[in-house]
């Protein structure tokens, strides 16, 4: 059974093909699973709140511009 692992991250929201990617200041990146369109936030510094789904995947509950 999977456990809910909440996570909050901040970084630059980018798009790689059709996949949203959060690029961190330390050079790391997370792939995001998000509902709805986030085009207006692409290229901006954001805070992502959600649940960690895997090694580098976050199911985003909320994406907020900083």
Folded structure, characterized:
The protein has 66 residues and is mainly beta. The protein is 0% helix and 58% strand. The chain has no helices and 5 strands. It has strands spanning 6-16, 19-23, 29-33, 45-52, 57-65. Strand 1 (6-16) and strand 2 (19-23) form a beta hairpin.
Describe the structure concisely.
By secondary structure, this protein is mostly beta strands.
Layout of strands and helices, then pairs:
Blueprint: E1 6-16, E2 19-23, E3 29-33, E4 45-52, E5 57-65
Parallel strand pairs: 3-5
Antiparallel strand pairs: 1-2, 1-4, 2-3, 4-5
User: Which structural class do the helices and strands define?
Assistant: mainly beta
Give the overall shape: globular
So what's the oligomer here?
single chain
Q: Helix content range of the residues, please?
A: under 10%
What is the beta-strand fraction? over 45%
Radius of gyration: 11 Å
